[in-house]
Amino acid sequence: MIKVELDKIIFYPPSKGYVIILKEINGYRQLPVIVGVFEAQSIALALGNVKMPRPMTHDLFIRVATQLGVSMQKVVINDLIDGTFYAQIILGNKINSSILQIDSRPSDAIALALRVDAEIWVSEKVMEEAGQIINLDDIRETKVADNVSVDDDILDHLIELKTKLQIAIDDENYELAAKLRDQITALEKESKNN
Fold it and tell me: CB-based burial of residue 20 (10 Å sphere; 0-12 exposed, 13-18 middle, 19+ buried)?
């Protein structure tokens, strides 16, 4: 199992949804997961620690679980079948010390985990199948070797474009992939010239 953290949320126009990037904590891989607009909004609210006047669905679930003596221990993205991610929410029952595993969509599991600061894990199988290698140190070392100052905004934009490129390739949208590849090349050239 690989411990991850939510790195960023990116708008993904082809699906009119969003991509959440889960970054390996002690490594160089990331996992892009496409989520719907409402789930992305719920995740963004949790990231920003925004309190709504009335509880949203994920907040309500946490309140009910707390009242029942159940606490979220972690969430696990444990499977990928036909391009669809599957997750489990691992709950601990304070009353009888039992462990409960509940099937979930990854977007809901992540929205809940962020609200209670629970750990997010990805199975090695899922990371191997759908993860991407992003090695920022190699990018930085290349820039330093070329005597170019590294701009973190450019690196973030490169990562975003490379993530979109991988998704386009996975979706067999080669026209979009070619455009993204050209944008990446232009941005890398521009960063070398600065």
Answer: buried
CA 90 – CA 136 distance, rounded (Å): 32
The residues near 171 (Cβ < 8 Å, ≥ 6 apart) are 14
Q: Radius of gyration of the chain from Cα atoms?
A: 19
Rounded CA-CA distance 98/106 in Å is 23
CA distance 1 to 114: 19
What are the residue boundaries of the structural domains of the chain, listed by start? 2-132, 135-193
Task: Determine the Cα–Cα distance for residues 109 and 31; give it in Å rounded to an integer.
Answer: 15
CATH number of the structural domain 2-132:
3.10.690.10
Residue 4 CA: distances (Å) to CA of 53, 61, 89, 148, 184 = 30, 23, 15, 30, 26
- Over the stretch 28-86, which tens digit does the pLDDT of each residue have? 889 999 998 889 999 998 988 888 888 899 999 999 999 999 999 999 999 999 889 99
CA distance 139 to 110: 29
Q: Is the pTM of this model over 0.85?
A: no
pLDDT (tens digit per residue) in 91-105: 998 778 889 999 999
130-147: pLDDT as tens digits: 988 875 554 444 444 444
